[in-house]
Amino acid sequence: MAHDEKARSRREVLGGTAAVFAGAALLASVPRPASALEGPGSSRAGEGAAFALTHATLIDATGAPPMRDMTVLVRGQVIAAIGRTGEVAVPSGAKVLDLAGRFVIPGLIESHVHSIGPETVVPPLYALTGVTSVREMRGETFHHQWRDEIASGRLLGPRWIIGSPIVDGRPSLHTSVTGSLIEVGTAAEAREAVRRAKREGADFVKVYSRLTREAYFALADEARVQGIPFAGHCPDPVTIAEAVRAGQRTLEHMDAVLLATSSREREIRRGLAAITTDASQDTFHRYRDWYQRIHALEHLAVRSFDPERTRALFRDLARHGRAVVPTLRIHQSLELPETNRKTDEWKYLSSDMTSWWSDVAEVMTGGRSAEEAAEIREIFEHRKALVGRMKRAGVRLLAGTDTGDPYIVPGFALHEELELLVQAGLTPMQALQAATSEPARAFGMAEKLGTVERGKLADLVVLDRDPLADIRHTRTIHALVVNGRLITSDERTRLLAEVEKAARSERGPVAPAGCGCAKHPSRP
User: Fold this and answer.
1) Could you say which of 3.30.420.40, 2.60.120.10, 3.40.50.300, 3.20.20.140 is the CATH number of the domain covering 3-505?
2) Which of 23, 123, 420, 462 is in Cβ range 3.0-4.6 Å of 509 for a Cys bridge?
3) Across the chain, how many H-helices and E-strands are there?
4) Which Pfam families match (predicted)?
5) Mean predicted lDDT score pLDDT of the chain
């Protein structure tokens, strides 16, 4: 393609975002055609229905060693009993699934997504890849509609924790055409943003990078008054220590963490303070320009890494029980673009969901010199090393991917994130817990989710191979239990085929809807 044709293609992708996003929202809310995802076969188990998973090796994600030859009895939507096979009474008439040689783990929790696309594709794809809960970091009306349909049994999908619109400074690093956005410039506006989020039914307030100190601390105080958590980016004018003490539930991505481990943080913060945002630009070019300004600061942070300062920071995070969501998968996509490629998993997405990926990625990552590319690879490796250090220091880590950005396929990406966490230094058990028990605790759901224990909700994944021997084995899904519904191997194959068929038949615009995080390597 000639240069002018490439430029025109990129302009069409970026300039058409407003219409694209509106079309995507419409696609998500229109009535769905009848399919194998509906009907009696797709509803939850009846209130008294029971089935048993027998002869399985149970990895309950509590940290206990694997337990062999176990039976898990599910009644309705709850785990009714767990014990040695032969010692658990299986009700007469209950379906029994013999899982000899297979492994049962809790349903996976995805802690950072921006879901967009047809409801015939995205919600079921999460569930069928073992992701039984997701945290939506930029809530839209259709996410609430999906949650209602899933709860009623009309739609197969995960449990949904839904954030507010992004709350950012004025001007934001976003534009409203890529998704819901609240720009605030004063303490009063920040407080109203919190009240609005609560009125609209958000589960938490999503904070962002360009909030002023005045607005951020007013937001934190109002969130406490209103009894609603807040989570997201650590704003540039705010230190991690201040965010921790203000009560921020989770810190997303590795950018603020990386900068805070530098012996030259004051100099870096002066550099951040000097950055301005051009409100006349679209989201993607705002981020491109941001990256060009921030790259030198990040590389400076790598070169001025301070181990003692880092230990103190991580001790503070651990002591206050704050969680970090590293999102290594999006860092990899934007910092090592040579790893981005079309995979077989794309068959589960409509062409309209993927057609813009290469153009946006080129805007964000194209034109790097060899020296710049080498520096960015160094930054990525440093991020991974910091993740390992955090875990060894006792910091709670949650697995999230920033799904919604280019080259990140819903559901499948979480398995890639687990692999990256192990590469960063976590054990397979620790990586598994980052997608099960740790987010359940962080989100106040530990009494119901996150581990395989009697009385908890029945979200389970059956694997053909041992994930503690190799974390990549979480991809070897044999069967599933999604909110008490047993999906056998044959049914899962059939349902995935239905998703693939739906993806081929969907013809309509689907927009970039991430953090704006399809942007630049330092801000996923």
Assistant:
1) 3.20.20.140
2) 23
3) 19, 17
4) Amidohydro_1
5) 88
